[in-house]
Amino acid sequence: MRLGAWFVDAWQPAIALDGKTGRRLAFHDASGEQLESDPACWVLRPVTILFRFSIGVTNGKRGTLVNAPLDFKLDDDASVRLTCVLPHLAAA
């Protein structure tokens, strides 16, 4: 991994369907207009998230690893402001 790179991928579809032609194209090749106007571009496919629990991982840590993404999803669905969710980041 190169320095400064994210260690996770963005949760966005890899493929978008062109609404006019029905042609499949890479998400990053879709036009800005299409991404703004076509909600089908943002439909996520089923995702499997695997956590590797090893010796020494406590039930508390395991709970955090599972609950943190769920909490993020709830905050995102409720459109909670960044200043409420991550105040230190928003203040930076």
What does this structure look like?
- This protein is mostly helical and about 90 residues long.
- It folds into 2 domains: about 1-45, no CATH class; about 50-90, no CATH class.
- About 35% of the residues lie in helices and about 5% in strands.
- It contains 4 helices and 2 strands; from the N terminus they run ββαααα.
- A two-stranded antiparallel ribbon has the order 1-2.
- It is extended, with a radius of gyration of 18 Å.
Number of helices, counting only DSSP H or I runs of 4 residues or more:
4
| SS-based class | mainly alpha
How much strand? 5-15%
Low-confidence stretches: none
Secondary structure tally: strands? 2
Largest sheet properties: 2 strands, antiparallel
The chain-level mean pLDDT equals 77
Summarize the structure.
This protein is mainly alpha-helical.
Tell me the layout of helices and strands.
Elements lengths: L14 E3 L6 E3 L5 H6 L21 H19 L4 H4 L1 H5 L1
Antiparallel strand pairs: 1-2
Question: Can you tag this structure with a few keywords?
Answer:
92 residues, mainly alpha, two-stranded antiparallel ribbon
